[in-house]
Amino acid sequence: MPDAVAAEGAARPAAFDVPEPPGGGRSRGPHADRSRAVDADPSSAVDVDRLSAVADAVLYEGYLLYPYRRSSPKNRVRWQFGVLLPRDRVERDGPVTPGVSGAADSWYQRTECLVRLRRPDAAVTVRVRFLHQQHKQVQQAGPDGGYHPVDSLRTADGTAHLTFDEAVPREARLTAAVADLLRQEHTAGIGAAAGQDTEPLPSGAGRVVRRREEVRARTVLTAERLAPDLVRLRVRTENTGTSPDPAAPRDEALRRALIATHTLIGGTGVEFVSLIDPPAQLAEHARGCRNAFTFPVLGGAPAGAPEGEGGLGPAVLSSPILLPDRPQVAPESPGDLHDAAEIDEILTLRTMLLTDAEKAEARATDPRAADILDRVETLPTEVFARLHGAIRSLAPAAPDPSAALDSSDTPDALDAPDAAEAPAAPRLPAAHGLPAAPEAPGAAERPAWWQELGGDGLSPTTDTVLVDGVRVGGGSRVRLRPRRGADAQDMFLAGRTARVAGVFHDVEGGVHLAVTVDDDPAAELHTWYGRFHYFRPDELVPLEPSRPPAPSP
Within 13 A of 536's CA, how many CA atoms are on the CB side? Predict the structure, then answer.
């Protein structure tokens, strides 16, 4: 049953239901059991539940990547989306810069969405979901009767057990009357208690100890009336904990973090407005919504709105990963592979081709990896065949009215475009060993960077750029230090050493250094293909003195 939550000295029709965390102790908001609960609409619950499959994909995106082994470099840097760390850890070098996606670490998320009220007693139900990290430590039994931590242990039955970081799903459910939110904000604690579970291993070989540290967090609900039947709902979730050492490695900070944090919102007597494609009369209000480290999209079946009001829906998923309105998991997909950016068919085939030793390590790494292997190895032929592809967007072709010919048009006029509208022929520079083509009309008016040969004088392999007082260019060795808010793929490379392949200039005057990572076994192949990672000068730390200037030709 939900715990009702009220402000000190005031009855508030709100309910907050936080599941009991493993390890004991029910996580409750302050001033519990002080008011009645608002009943949820069963139809709204169905709409929100339709989003559960997508929400679960968000929750476990990147949790464990192919080849699902602990030893894989991809699985040493994990949890890149929706990570809410303690504020003193995130802001040790300055305030965070808000964005609409959650690929950068933060200490809070803010969701703002528009809600149309269909009943005077309208209420909203908010579900805040996240992962709580737990450390799985394998311990070997010693001759003294004690236990000693080990990296791995194989028991007498041949099963391997590996030390690894897992995660426990958490969810807090909050329900409040909109009328009450318009009067005052509602706050509830949504954190998770510390805990420990112990699992003995067969034949007294040892044990597995799973430990979780306390996560302190809260969610604040507020509403602002914009029109008699329209409000702006704000859901702000914050990590309110502190770090023992704000400068500690990220792996340690994650123990007190909310991971893959996202929010599901439904309600009774309400409809939600798309911020991507709002009805025309609500477009200005939609532009006024400010979302940080997450973005809300419509879910559920389309509302039966009049023409021109199709941007309405019964539920919202606010995700740290950018999604379209009404996202859904492909019905052909037989199960989660924790990599929504990958194609199921390809990833399934790759998993099938793992060696027995690789599969054994994957099974020992995490129970979810074992589930994936079991599903792939027993996949029926007809289910696998459906992964090959599906066409969902075919529609009858309609004639294009703009293509109709006026009776005055003649074939000659259509076949010979006006010279002023003719596309300019590409001009190959003489440096390529070919005669230069005549300059196309209008080329002289182009910006300098767009003109042919506009890059003359630049030499990526010999140019250098000043980084921390050191001249860095082709051949320089550097350490990678992606800036806060960088792409998640760049964050995987944080702290790695690399070699600069060239210095490149973009059309806006920016400078980027192409690098190959030192311990990348395919570095030579990438260089041959010209495939590099690109970083700005301020994202690199020189590891060598200045390079001497290139000799004059």
Answer: 10
Beta-strand runs (E) in 228-368:
230-239, 259-268, 270-273, 295-299, 312-313, 315-319
- Cα-based angle 105, 339, 523 (whole degrees, multiple of 5): 80
Helices (H), 397-457: 411-415
User: What tokens appear for 32 in the block?
Assistant: 């519990």
pLDDT tens per residue across span 132-142: 999 999 999 99
Question: Token pair of 125, please?
Answer: 């139900």
pTM over 0.70: no
Q: 180, 186 in Cβ contact below 8 A?
A: yes
Q: What average pLDDT score do residues 348-375 get?
A: 92
Q: Kindly give, in sequence order, each residue whose CB lies less than 8 Å from that of residue 264, ignoring residues fewer than 6 positions away.
A: 48, 51, 52, 55, 126, 127, 129, 299, 315, 316, 317, 318
Work out the average pLDDT over 468-485: 88
More confident residue, 445 or 394: 394
Tens digits of per-residue pLDDT, 462-471? 899 999 889 9
Spatial CA neighbour of 240 closest among 259, 216, 257? 216
How many Cα atoms sit within 13 Å of 90 on the Cβ side? 24
pLDDT band for 302, please (50, 70, 90 cuts).
low
Q: What are 465's strand-pairing partners?
A: 472
Tokens of 345: 């068919």
Reported confidence tier of residue 47, pLDDT bands at 50, 70, 90: low
H-helix or E-strand containing 89?
helix 87-90
**Is residue 235 helix, strand or coil?**
strand
Q: Phi and psi for 42 in degrees, rounded to 5?
A: -55, -35
Average pLDDT score over residue span 154-164 = 93
Tokens 């990296």, residue located? 151
Please tell me the predicted confidence (pLDDT) of residue 127: 95
Angle between helices 367-377 and 344-352 (to 10 degrees): 90
Q: Per-residue DSSP letters for 6-64? A: --TT----EEEE-PPPTTS-----SSBS-SPPPPPPHHHHHHHHHTHHHHHHHHTTTSS
| Angstrom distance (rounded) from CA 366 to CA 68 | 8
Residue closest to 342 by CA, chosen among 356, 103, 350: 350
Mean pLDDT within 493-514 = 88
How far apart CA 263 and CA 272 sit, in angstroms, is 14
